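explain this chain.
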Amino acid sequence: MKKIGLFCSTIFHFYIYENIIKNISNNYVFISPDLKDKKENKKLMNFINNKGYQLFKEDEIIIGSSSIDILLSPYWRPSFLLYPSNIKMVRLMYGYAKDDWNYADWNRYYDLILTYGEYAQHKLKKFNNSVAVGNPRIYGIEQKLKNEPIQDIKGRYFLDFKKKEKLTILYAPTWGDLSSFAYVRQYIEHLSEEFNFIVKAHHLFSVKDDVKFNQLIQDFKIFYCDEQTDLFSLIHVSDLMISDYSGAIFDGILSGINTVLVNGKLSNTLEKETHLEGIVRNKLKVLNTNSFTKLLQDIQDVFKNTKYRNNIYQLQKELFINVNTTENIFKDIQRALQSLNNKSSDNQKSQYNKRELLIKLLESNNKNIVICGGGEFGRSVLSFCKANKGNVSLIVDNYCEESSIDNVPVLKMNDLLCLSTEKIKSNFYLIATKNGAEYFQNKLEQMDLREVEDFYLL
């Protein structure tokens, strides 16, 4: 039995693994980074513990105090470069949407990618490390609802909210500039009078400053859920789902529910016809949000159109496999994971893994270490250095609000430049950031520091 780590930086990630845990026997543990928001750290830990599972801190894997055989994660993080190279890295997709990100070059780092179907397979074929298995989240929803009745953020049950004479609409917007919430918000109270109206918030979305909206939640006029509620459970009790540019679009398609769209304020500039969010806009209804009358009419037209769902089923076939044979999803995943036993670490993996390299740098270096970058990767490098007796004296980061990280002082680059030349050259610099790497490299070279001898780009 393999020990499999499940990378989880938000409660939402739990649900992408849930059915795998229940249907494929292994020794599973959850792994979480040290989140900057300590309340979120505690919230995630309590949630995982209440589900009956262990939650390890990522640093435990990095410094070697805990071990795993396989890591499942929804995306790649620079900190994975510090994991022991014998750990097999497996990506489990957590959604369609955002093609530029979903199929980016970091996918090459994985030993195996578990995809939903042919669309993703085509996009990832250049990496030669993916296999289509379907989406395990679709399995067993009815039984789950019997065991875990749906509750809103106030702990109230959906069965107490639902009025049988009304149809149920689920609204699942994304967050940020692509979100449609600003356009739909003004109609939500009216929609709640016409329908059982559910709002499923993105895990990065907040309405804490919207007094009137919070009153709707308080008065039980809408059924508001956060990331602690599984979207697939909400889809199952709904008659129609509204989304915008969220991956929820494709969860609705997979579930076979009538799925309609609304645009966000940047839709005209960011939408790409070659991306799924653009492609589906040619096949699904885009609601008119210019007035409530037009919005309501569009929704009613979809309910009346008995052929509309044919569009959903066609997209289903194009995007997913094992839709009607969900038990095969787990057989295919199990088979794919077993194939890792026959896959040796290739030269490419040894080239990009930074663990052994960093150990050698620390062993051969007698200078104080300065880490350039105080983000997630920089913090992981700090933990690794400390565990391997590297003396880290400073962290340089222009955007970090903290004055110190794990008792190591944080300076802005301009503050570093104010130090004496002798002091600057007495350190060895580790550049531990992707976005700021070129900036730090240029600054260090301007101080007559040389790559490899005085600094290293991780």
Remarks:
- The chain has three domains: 3-135+325-348, 141-319, 354-457.
- Residues 141-319 form a domain with the Rossmann fold fold (CATH 3.40.50.2000).
- The CA atoms of residues 369 and 393 lie 6 Å apart.
